[in-house]
Fold Regulatory protein.
Amino acid sequence: MDTSSATLLVTKLPEVKVRDRQTGEVAVDPVTNDRLMVMELVFIAQGGSDMIKVTVPEKGIGEGLAMGAPVFLSGLVARPWESEFSGRTRHGIAYRADAVMVGTPAAAQG
């Protein structure tokens, strides 16, 4: 997902992602076994904004994150999801990135 024309600001600092709220089991990447973190960002683009939650491996969390800080994401992927719980269908988009870093990416040369 290309975010080069968007502004991303931290609205909630990374926290450990919980896989099972009843047991407190922490979510881990199935391939690397790295602990997963979740954070909230405001995504501003094309005159509008949305709040998004992004899952990032703990090793991909850059230093210096602070509330309101502009950030950029490496390897961002958006996937639709749908689940049914107690007879109610829920759906949304899950965001996953390889890394989150403070600042903005260098402008493309051209």
The domain at 7-102 is CATH 2.40.50.140 (OB fold (Dihydrolipoamide Acetyltransferase, E2P)). The chain has a mean pLDDT of 90. Strands lie at 7-16, 18-20, 25-26, 36-45, 48-57, 70-74, 77-85, 88-96, 99-102. The chain is about 0% helix and 55% strand.
